[in-house]
Amino acid sequence: MRRRRESESSLELLLDTMCNTFGGVMFIAITLAVIIAGRQISPKHEEKSRITDVRQLQSEIQALEIALQKTQAENAALAKEEALISQDSRMQLVGEIALLEKKLQNIELSRELEVQKTTSVDAEKVSLEIELQQLQKKLLALTKKLEEANRNLADERSKIEELKQKIRLASTKTLTFHVLTEKTKMPYYIFLRDDRAWRVGPLRTGNQWSAEPDVAMTQSGNQLSFAIHSDQGRNVCANDTFTDGFNQLLSAVPADRIIVFVVEPSAAKTFCKIRETLKKQNFFHGFVMYEKLESFNLLLADEVHYEY
Q1: Phi-psi region of 282 (alpha: psi -120 to 50; beta: other; left: phi over 0)
Q2: Residue 268 in contact with residue 197, Cβ under 8 Å?
Q3: Which of 78, 266, 271, 278 could share a disulfide with 283, CB 3.0–4.6 Å?
Q4: What is the full DSSP assignment across 138-198?
Q5: How does pLDDT run across 50-86, given as a tens digit for each residue?
Q6: How many CB atoms lie within 10 A of CB 206?
Q7: Per-residue pLDDT tens for 184-226?
Q8: CA–CA separation, 68 vs 70, rounded Å?
């Protein structure tokens, strides 16, 4: 009789331990279920926060996997206890119930893991959709740029075709080449810089040479050097017509001299206007091109034939 009471007392202690273990496991399961249910009920976050939650979900998956491993270890321990109490049918029945409950808990944990993995996949899907939208926007922008480049290319091709047509038309016309004309009249030089003109000359009185007031002259043998006075130049054009000062300069040139323009690169545009106007007036003239210099030189000779 005493032995039976001792076995019943041991059975009560074992049942108490198993119930406590089962209660703890159920508390953990219910807590996880409440947390997951709260997350399912909470409103959806913005796309960026979903992407950020992927890491948290992965850490929770790892935690659940660790809990599953602990549960499996406890199952192994319960299996050993089941082998020890297999002689008592009631203890065996209690052990089977606990084992079934443990297996049920494992199934629930596995289901939670699957839910967490599905959520992680959904978050990755959202991230990929965002990247796809960004790529579509970039593709649209590149398409617009390509269309614009094609339009510009078509315009350039049209211009090239127009130029080719003009060249073909020009090739059918008769070209006239103007040759240089030889004269014995001495040149009268006018210096051009930017949109201004300076009288140079030189003037001759007997065997003496002198320069106009707009320049300074030095003579070395039969070579004359001229340097302009920057404050003496006069404007050439105003509103695409010659200024009064420049017209006076042209009319003051001696009749036995021919105007030759000394042109710096900065005065090329101005000289083109002068040349077109003088050609329309049948005004005979010549020109020479100089790089920008502080002075320029002329060589004197007794008998010279000039070409204009």
Answers
A1: left
A2: no
A3: 278
A4: HHHHHHHHHHHHHHHHHHHHHHHHHHHHHHHHHHTSPP--PPP-EE-SEEEEEEEETTEEE
A5: 556 667 777 777 777 787 777 777 767 766 666 665 5
A6: 5
A7: 678 889 999 989 999 988 888 877 888 888 988 888 877 888 8
A8: 5
CA angle (135 as vertex; 134, 139 as ends), nearest 5? 120
Return d(Cα 270, Cα 294) in angstroms, integer: 20
Predicted confidence at residue 16, as pLDDT, reads: 77
One-letter identity of residue 275: R
Calpha distance 80→76 (Å, rounded): 7
Confidence of residue 5 (pLDDT cuts 50, 70, 90): low
Beta 241-242 vs 257-263: how paired, if at all?
A: unpaired
CB-based contact 266:194 (threshold 8 Å): yes
- Boundaries of every domain in the chain: 2-139, 182-307
With contact defined as beta carbons under 8 Å apart, do 209 and 167 qualify? no
Residue with tokens 């049209």: 158
From the CB of residue 1, how many other CB atoms can be counted at a distance below 10 Å? 5
With tokens 């060249």, the residue in question is: 167
- The distance of Cα 288 from the centroid of its chain, to the nearest Å, equals 47
